[in-house]
């Protein structure tokens, strides 16, 4: 049995801004903390049925952000509907739930409006719809992007803390892709999948003595059980059997999985609290960390372990999958 990471999380459960608040860290001035980025230029925007007036995306990874709507004069009877959209990759955007501004009409134009973004994506932008007549407006994004010389070091500690929590609990915390390898098919009708929070099984395959790979068919050769935040399973369908061919001697069976909670907001508070404790420990004791015997791996402190105990996965994969 072996498993190897293919793609790690694109964001961390604890943003850099949250870690800084926890450690009471900040840069020196308000001006150096804040960055204002124009999303949609201020102009007279024509009638558009649908949200076709889209702004430029802004990377807010690890920072707090507010979205500003600068409303000028609406044409006679015109309305301006503006909302916030979010994205993981600055390519595919979806509406942020709760991210719609109050509709601007001739009764409340010539004013500024703001919304604090509390979502968990890396990029945000605005999208607007104008009806009846043209409207003067624009949007911008204000990011609390305080920087310190040791930001990169703190980001490393955040990742280390997350990996420490993952190692202790046996979980993949946020969306990540792994290859899970078996040396043989089990003697039971199921394979238990490690890391918990199984989102999907991308593929399952096996190699015979000639090393040729055979792709198994989901729904025909196997069925996937997600099982919530516990360990998922790959099980045989009714009257199904595992292949009986002689297998390749090295990692013959591969199951590619996607696991983890979908976003940082879904990660249990116990895991986040343990991460913050670990981050504080790493920050305050940079030169003298607690290490396992003959180990170079960071160990969580006792309080963090107590927080995590109820979220630990206890499956014995060597036993269950043989």
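^ structure tokens above, recovered residues below v
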């Amino acid at each position: 049995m072996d498993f190897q990471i293919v793609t790690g999380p694109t964001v961390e459960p604890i943003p850099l801004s949250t870690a800084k608040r926890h450690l009471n860290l900040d840069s020196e001035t308000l001006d150096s903390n804040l960055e204002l980025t124009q999303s949609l230029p201020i102009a007279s925007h024509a009638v558009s049925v649908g949200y076709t007036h889209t702004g430029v995306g802004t990377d807010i990874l690890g920072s707090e952000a507010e979205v500003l709507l600068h409303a000028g004069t609406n044409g006679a009877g015109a309305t301006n509907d503006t909302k916030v959209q979010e994205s993981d990759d600055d390519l595919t955007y979806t509406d942020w739930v709760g991210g719609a501004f109050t509709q601007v009409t001739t009764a409340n134009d010539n004013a500024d409006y703001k919304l604090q973004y509390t979502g968990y994506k890396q990029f945000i932008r605005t999208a607007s719809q104008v009806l009846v007549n043209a409207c003067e407006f624009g949007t911008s994004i204000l990011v609390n992007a305080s920087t310190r010389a040791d930001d990169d070091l703190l980001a490393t500690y955040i990742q280390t803390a997350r990996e420490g929590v993952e190692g202790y609990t046996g979980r993949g915390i946020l969306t990540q892709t792994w290859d899970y390898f078996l040396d043989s098919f089990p003697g039971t009708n199921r394979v238990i999948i490690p890391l918990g929070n199984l989102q999907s099984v991308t593929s399952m395959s096996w190699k015979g003595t000639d090393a040729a790979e055979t792709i198994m068919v989901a729904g025909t050769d196997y069925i996937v059980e997600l099982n919530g935040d516990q360990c998922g399973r790959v099980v045989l369908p009714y009257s199904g059997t595992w292949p009986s061919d002689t297998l390749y001697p090295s990692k013959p069976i591969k199951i590619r999985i996607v696991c983890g909670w979908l976003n940082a907001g879904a990660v249990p508070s116990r895991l986040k609290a343990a991460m913050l404790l670990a981050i504080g420990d790493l920050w305050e004791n940079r030169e003298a960390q607690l290490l396992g015997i003959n180990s170079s791996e960071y160990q969580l402190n006792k309080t963090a372990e107590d927080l995590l105990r109820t979220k630990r996965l206890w499956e014995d994969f060597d036993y269950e999958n043989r």
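The helical segments are 16-23, 30-33, 151-169, 269-284, 302-308, 317-320.
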